[in-house]
Amino acid sequence: MTSTASVRHFLRDDDLTPAEQREVLELGLGFREDRFIRTPLRGPQAVAVIFDKPSTRTRVSFSVGIAELGGYPLVIDAASSQLGRGEPIADTARVLDRQTSAIVWRTFGQERVEEMARVATVPVVNALTDEFHPCQILADLLTVAQLRGGVDSLAGTSLVYLGDGANNMAHSYLLGGVTAGMHVRIGAPAGFLPDPAVVADAERIARDTGGSVLVTTDAVEATRGADVVATDTWVSMGDEASAAERELPFVPYQVNAELMAVAVDDALVLHCLPAYRGKEITAEVIDGPQSAVWDEAENRLHAQKALLTWLLDRS
Ligand code: CP
Ligand code: NVA
């Protein structure tokens, strides 16, 4: 709530260095073990959690997490606030940062969270934009660490993401995955491939961490030997107008038993949810023994508590 030049934000996955991401994940595993291991928001400190788009998991996990950290979640639907009526982002930032300890925001363009962070004197956290969903990837990494031998097990693990390669999840898997030293593969149809600038950033990070990046239109090649198989809806929030065109090109990328057969035998299945059974994933797979999606959803809570604690410690 006080002005500081050193305030840290989390707008993209690569806002954390590999060492910093590891600290957050270790703390997240700590919160999994003991929900009240740290309570940094002493007293009735508020954290603003703003939604320009719908949410179930993000709304619940930030609300519960902020309360468990000892704070007060101030959940604001943009449609019912002046932000939704066009009040400038910078003006909103100046009002919020005098009364809250952090600002968590789900919105449209990445430039909106960047503008909030330029002005705010408290940490700003991206709770999903059109381009990135970095809190989700922290939870996904935590899930792999939880189920596969800790944070050390992440480096060298191969993760394939199948489906819409141009969406927020694909971009965040690229950046967050290579930051953890993973081999990240994107299998997506032509016309739905990741932003080349994000791929270039991921390749640069991978050179330092020992990870790697593969982008291909061949779903089988992408999935062969993968340790983790992830997917997401073919129609992200905001893409509804093109829903009809987002059906046929994606069919070969459906996560089903046939595709799972080319991954390693005990490959983990991740999906950020909400899931559309029969579209991007079959019921057999998401409700089957390799699915880790409920741990993944719970880990939003632990990962975000760790992230907020880490950011508040440094701001
Ligand atoms: N995975 C995720 O962000 O879910 P919500 O849209 O329900 O928050
Ligand atoms: N790509 C999806 C993620 C939902 C959590 C969307 O943006 O709608």
TrEMBL record:
Major site of localization recorded for this protein: cytoplasm
Enzyme Commission number(s) from the entry: 2.1.3.3
Organism lineage string: Bacteria, Bacillati, Actinomycetota, Actinomycetes, Micrococcales
UniProt-listed PANTHER family: ORNITHINE CARBAMOYLTRANSFERASE, MITOCHONDRIAL, ORNITHINE TRANSCARBAMYLASE, MITOCHONDRIAL
Pfam families for this protein: OTCace, OTCace_N
Binding residues annotated for L-ornithine, in chain numbering: N168, D232, S236, M237
Database matches in InterPro entries: Asp/Orn_carbamoyltranf_P-bd (IPR006132), Asp/Orn_carbamoylTrfase (IPR006130), Asp/Orn_carbamoylTrfase_sf (IPR036901), Asp_carbamoyltransf_Asp/Orn-bd (IPR006131), Orn/put_carbamltrans (IPR002292), OTCase_ArgI (IPR024904)
Keyword set includes tRNA processing: no
Keywords for the protein's UniProt record, in alphabetical order: Cytoplasm, Transferase
Highest taxon listed in the record's lineage: Bacteria
Residue ranges occupied by any Aspartate/ornithine carbamoyltransferase Asp/Orn-binding domain in the UniProt entry: 156-311
Protein name as catalogued: Ornithine carbamoyltransferase
Catalytic activity: carbamoyl phosphate + L-ornithine = L-citrulline + phosphate + H(+)
Family: Belongs to the aspartate/ornithine carbamoyltransferase superfamily. OTCase family.
Cellular compartments annotated: Cytoplasm
Gene of this entry: argF
Positions that bind carbamoyl phosphate: S55, T56, R57, T58, Q82, R106, H133, P134, C135, Q136, C272, L273, R300
Organism: Oerskovia rustica
Domain (Aspartate/ornithine carbamoyltransferase carbamoyl-P binding): residue spans on this chain: 8-145
Gene Ontology MF: a single term: ornithine carbamoyltransferase activity
Pathway assignment: Amino-acid biosynthesis; L-arginine biosynthesis; L-arginine from L-ornithine and carbamoyl phosphate: step 1/3
